[in-house]
Amino acid sequence: MRLFGVGTVGPAERVEPAGHPSAPIPVVGPGIGTQIRVPLGETGVSAFPLMLGGAEFGWNTDTATSNAILDRYAEFGGNAVHTADSFAAGRSEYIIGQWLHSRGCRDDFVLGVRVGAHPDNPGIGSVNLVRAVESSLTRLGVERIDVLYLDGSLDDGSALEDTLATTEWLTETGKVGALGAFGFSPERLVEARILASAGYPRIEVLDEPYNLLRREPYEGDLRLVAGAQGLAVTPSHALEHGFLSGRHRSKQALNGVRGMQLRSNINRRGIKVLRALDLVANELQVPVAAVAVAWLLAQRTITAPIVNAFSTEHVEELIQGAGVSLSRAQLAELARAAA
């Protein structure tokens, strides 16, 4: 494994002496990734260039597996976790909160939470927004959300001015640090910046589904606005529901909701993209998933993709993407395959 291949040993673990004088000396201490941080726009917060998503926690992964995934991510030096109040009906938040408390690492992690899609508090109107934030804080067992992502995908008719005024109160009371947006159109982001110039809180981070296969609508006006406003873009669906990991290449044995999501990509274009990823992965001797992540990190305006994992092995594959540098020829080949 490149860059992040050095294992780390926790403080409670005992390191056995090497069996031979020429054997590698085990490394004790924080993972090498603790030295790798990128600023999230102008929030004043720095994060590892891959945010660990909690979409699978409490849904496809149980508590024990979720804790192991979080532990492995932290061992590599990762420090940013993203979840949503709608993930597994709030169980994702509960699992992450319990992990942060049991490991005593809340102050070391950047905690991002998306609100607005929970059935109990839908939309980002003033009343439901406050209720959603309070509920998330309770499930997480924390006093503050570092980056609050406003889910604008559900149009409940709320005035953006009222929403931002509410976030101002949440920020002043210390419940929220910085503001992010999800599902915002370019026009809505422009409106938000105009309101910010009038004194309302400023949106600093943007989450938009984006990957090698799903290039629209981000590669258009949305990217232009994000660049002009200096937003830190933390795209979700980095592996397109796991398809870009290269593990699923046949429609057989694909069942359930995840199977339906994957089936839609098993077509001529999808297979062509996987073949291009295979070639680059073979050249660099890294997993296919790492190449997909590296492609995202090579795109302008992208700060830290949000990646989900089903196991600790997936974490190890994804983390390598932060240490892969793709050549111009490789980037061009991947772009041609996805055209």
TrEMBL record:
Residues 49-336 form the NADP-dependent oxidoreductase domain. PANTHER family: NADH-SPECIFIC METHYLGLYOXAL REDUCTASE-RELATED, OXIDOREDUCTASE-RELATED. This is Aryl-alcohol dehydrogenase-like predicted oxidoreductase.
